[in-house]
Amino acid sequence: MNRRTRATRRLSTRMLATGALVASALAVAAPALADRAEVKDPADATASLTDIRKVVIDHSPQRLLVKVRFTDLRRSSDGGPSGIGIFLDTDPDQAGPEFKLASGLQSGTDYQLLRVQDWKIVGEPLSCRHHLALDFADDVLRFRAGHACLGAPDAARVAVKMTDMYDGSHPVVDWLGERRSFTGWVTTD
Ligand SMILES: [Ca+2]
Ligand SMILES: [Ca+2]
Hints:
Layout: H1 3-26, E1 36-40, E2 52-59, E3 63-70, E4 82-89, E5 99-104, E6 111-117, E7 120-122, E8 130-135, E9 140-146, E10 155-164, E11 172-175, E12 186-187
Antiparallel strand pairs: 1-2, 2-3, 3-9, 4-5, 4-10, 5-6, 6-7, 8-9, 10-11, 10-12
Bound molecules: calcium ion (2 copies).
């Protein structure tokens, strides 16, 4: 049994305990243990059209899919640009996220998948299999990363931050939930 397998088994035991506790205490809408989680966010950044409204995580043994829905995703901005950071936590033994997907939210934008430590980018962008698409008709961003690209985690959770620079002197920031808070863990089951 290699180190990752041991870490994963510890995680599974811990998640089961935590999941049972949360389910019985709070009866939360999104279960802590699932292959899919959906988390809504209020219209709390109405100064931005890209106010985060909902995030869906779908985790399979082949890939991790993250969808982010906004109030109004548009091809172009007549002011400053807005962008998004999707932080992926894939290892519960290391504090904080291990990866960050960084992208603009307008047509033709670049995106990069990066390693992070202490929420800060480390090293060069990764070239392993991942893809991002902006669906302006449905106001949805879809991000997909190959399972191997993320170190084949049994579970993952995400934190999402939108920054709108429409008014450069007063950027609008919207986190999914609280600042640097994560969704529940989503397994590949
Ligand atoms: Ca919001
Ligand atoms: Ca971690």
